[in-house]
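Crash report, auto-generated. Payload:
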Amino acid sequence: MTKSVTDVICPFCGTLCDDLEVVVSDDGKTIVDVYNACAIGAEKFMHAQASGRVTRPRMQQPDGSYKEVSYDEAVEYTAQMLAKSKKPLMYGWSSTSCEAQSVGHEIAEQVGAIVDNTATVCHGTTLLAVQDVGIPSCTLGEVKNRADRIIFWGCNPCHAHPRHMSRYSIFPRGFFTNKGHKNRKMIVVDPRNTDTAKMADIHFQIEQGRDYELLSALRVALRKEVLPDTVAGVPKEKIYEAAELLTSGRFGIIFFGMGVTQTLSKNHNIDEAIMLTKDLNEFTKFSIMAMRGHYNVTGSGQVLGWQFGYPFCVDLSRGFARYNPGETSSNDLLRRGEVDAVFVLGSDPGAHFPISSVKKISELPSVAVDPHITPTTEVAKLHVPVAFVGVEVGGNCYRMDNVPIDARKVVDPPEGVLTDEEFLTRVNKRVKELMEA
Amino acid sequence: METVTLTIKSQPVLFLEADNITPDVFAGKSAADIASLHAYEGRDQITLGKYFDVAGKAGATAADTKIVVKGDVSRVKYIGMKMSAGEILVEKSADMYVGGWMQGGKLTVKGNVDAFAGLGMQNGELIIEGNAGNYLGAAYRGDWRGMQAGVIRVKGNAGSDIGTFMNGGTIIVEGNVDVHVGTHAEGGKIIVKGNGKSKIGGQMVEGEIYVFGTIDVMMPGYKYIEDVDLEVDGVKGKFALYHGDLGERHPKRKGQIVYGKLYQKI
Amino acid sequence: MSEYLIKNGFVFDPVQGIKGDKADIAVKDGKIVKSSEISSKAKTIDAKGKSVMAGAVEIHAHIAGPKVNEGRNYRPEEKLFGYTPKKTGSRMAGGFSIPTTFKTGYEYARMGYTTAMEAAMPPLYARHVHEEIKDTPIIDEGAYPVFGNNWFVLEYLKNKEIENVAAYIAWLLTETKGYAVKIVNPGGTEAWGWGLNCISIHDPVPYFDVTPAQIVQGLLEANEYLGLPHSIHVHTNNLGNPGNYETTLDTFKLAEGYKAKNKFGREQVLHHTHVQFHSYGGDNWGNFESKSKEIMEYVNKHDNITIDLGQVTLDETTTMTADGPFEHHLTELNHLKWANVDVELETAAGIVPYIYSPNIKVCGIQWAIGLELALLAKDPMRTFITTDHPNAGPFTRYPRVMKWLMSEKARKDQIDAFKYSDKVVAATHLASLDRELTMYELAQMTRAGPAKALGLAHLYGGLKPGMDADIAIYDLNPEKPATPDEIEAAFSRARYVMKSGTPVVVDGEIVSHGNKRTLWVNAKVNENPQVVRDIKDKFLRYYSVNQANYKVANHFVPNPYIIEVDATQ
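Recovered output after restart:
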């Protein structure tokens, strides 16, 4: 016999689908099947079941081999490392719950760490733009119920956020959009002919690195000012037409991704896109939203926000919170040699950071907390395996539109494996003892 | 004017945060007092004396105090932060935030500086004889009130994002600059004597930018107006004047719309 | 539990009518008791030469939730040089107009505030609101979910289905762990979904074809049908515009003929918040003027209405409201960074930084209007001090507001400091008001009054035996006149504060995180299959989350104080 867990939250991407159905064995230990999820989301659940999973902490030995250690030893090593460090980097936080993040911040506050999340290599530039010019946005349900102009700029939801279009943005029939995709015009701006671009009503295949100019040109067109003959490889007639198309809708939205956040101009691209959105509100209703990657990177920004006032790159080293990406951002810190220990939880910088940064991590005292063996755990001195958040333990998460959803537990973690929150709570207790001593 | 000489003894393991190295903090202090001022290395609070030999003494006020920093301070941040008067001379290179939030006085760095030099500058004179990093004379994150007044002169090149949200004052870069110059500016003057790249004057409301060399890609919101004869920082020449950024809002003054002005030397 | 005896203080307690008499206050097991009920082991606190009041009650502030946090995160420049370093036993605390959660708890407590209400909770984001409340130490908190633009409410009220609205309110309060029915720009925020607005209370809401007047009146009736502890809490249409006082009076009049029906001792049926923003005359910024007299004349005559001020503090601050169209209007005026979130089926919110400059005439007039409302109030039990934090200024400026209200000289000094003081005086009544609030009146406006309006008079706002031991002691000796600055200093840092019998502030410093509670209302109604069906249907078709994932689970509210309401009869 099997049983079904419904309304399960998918711990993969920032779309944070909450309608999954997971079939588990009668003893509640094994996942048998996953319904409603995209291929990646389903894999995330099934992967938790993979054989050969590490279930005890492992310490790297001088010869590169690993030795199993107890959780007690892992807690001690981690606490000692953080307490001895003058300026540790505590990075990740995007694939874990807000409850765990909160405990992590308490540790960081005591040891004077820098807390940074994966936005630092993803939508951190978006956060900078929001700090400069604000952001008019909405929840995904507003898009479903009202939007008739959908722009995907530098993102490819077909692959990165597979259910985004069917749940929220293109296909669903909403309150004022009862014809679904027939009510909507879909525009894709991307230098590549992606699968998302192939679905679009209009695809602007622009010159790489000229997003800022094209966004600016759209604003010029809205003001009925003159344009050069082509901008970013797009003829000016097309730009005027596009401006007309955007203003003729009732409710529009720009979704954007790493194609604009991490290419030339970075935060300025987003800044200009936000200002275009603001300008469009003179004509009709318009919103803009970041296609956040990790399922709870948004939550990390939220918890950091209410506890310290900044969404990432938070430097607590001097006993108060400071913030300045470019200085307090993980890769700048590692590149420049500003930190003397690295703690990673809920991310895989070994796979996503430049090799120079990964090399720096490997040279420093380091701990990686992750359910899996990853490129990061392979360079860290200590790997602490933990339960999967959203599969083996619940916890609060924030969707890309900042809507909080409480992830569910579906199955038990392997015998004796701690959750992020449990491990951090023990480290916190030990750090407190060490710092007070 | 009295002179205090700081000579770095050894390099910090991490970076040193030395926001106390200013004429304002030094004023009225002896060498021993200055050596016992705080600095930070990570979470460790240390004294300036740990890393610097301090000689001489400060004047009674900031205006009467000159600080000479000797040795490689390329791992020392915040030199001259918030200084309001007096003088600092850094003989080699310094790290980030040189002259950050500076309010007056004169700060000279003979070598290079890293990012955020002259950040949020209120007034004063900042001279970099080498190269400057990114965010030279820019606003701090989120602030719409960037550089207000004063002069920044860089004899070498500068990085990207110079003069972001600039409201007043002058930035002169005698070499080349990277992308994004004077973004969101609502005043002030930026002179680039070398080449620019692209994204120059993006989202500029008002203010002036002069580029003596090339511009790879012009922002689409800049409209050619006319050629004008000008003398800019001692150089006479003919410049093409553009108005922009036409994609941005612009205030009206005396019935006239005020634009940002971009001059390119012909 | 511990026992305390606070001796020799000058006590100001509107609940017992004590007006500065010397009296001892005894505390046992977190409650105030008769002095005869404590043992000789009670710890004595000497309040000689000091004033003793109940802990103050904040009735309206934006201190937790999505828009507050967006405000924090998008204003790094505000925290640049103003952070309080970590001290032993307390957390780092930063931010000025939008302090971090820790700072919020600490600053309220230091001023002697022990309870605060988050003024606008978007239901879909309720979980976020509660996460922040959980991280706000010391003070008891509740949150008002917004109802005035909710599709269920709009649809039911189009047909005047009061019972269905009541059943929906009861359901939503339980789902969101909410405290009261908040209404913000009724209908106008839904119109904002299309970039539109409802300016008067008779402008129909696009598509839904119901008017703001119908929404307010319908929610008022449903609120009294349920007998909730608090009345409807209204921010009406047309906020911030010259000439809007007529809209405000029109809104007040909707309450005429209604009497409060509840078991909590609440007497008003409508609380209107931040009335300063709604008391404007003139028809442009040039002839902008105060209409506080017209407003207060009405309020003074109608005892089924309460108000709070929304006092401008003349600071750089961050405005934030569920009045989405207003924030768009504001960014068009000052060109500062604009954040907006439209929330499916429910509400919206906007944020824009704002500088209330003493050099701008309009800001001076706004400042005067807020003070006038308080000084013209005949019943201090119905007019409460707020800054609509952070909209008219941060709550940390309450001591300054108190100074202005208690000292004519302090007001005159400020008027003289305005760049356009003559124009401010000409457009307002303040210069002709010589009233100085007494300590007793202040206790009414900040303690007993708001507690009663919230239906919490049994717990808060007084020092009567049986009430919670929320006590503040200030360095103010009523027998010695205090200068304006001494008044401000005394209220900024209470000498001693106790929350539910636990000392939390001693000599102005935080000594404990206390044992904060979250207040929410559990209203029971008769089974209503139609509403159950409608809820299910809306989640299936229009929400972007499943209904099963909407409810705020109990673990988000680890220390609840649940107020039970039974409307099944």
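Post-recovery validation: Chain B has three helices and 19 strands.
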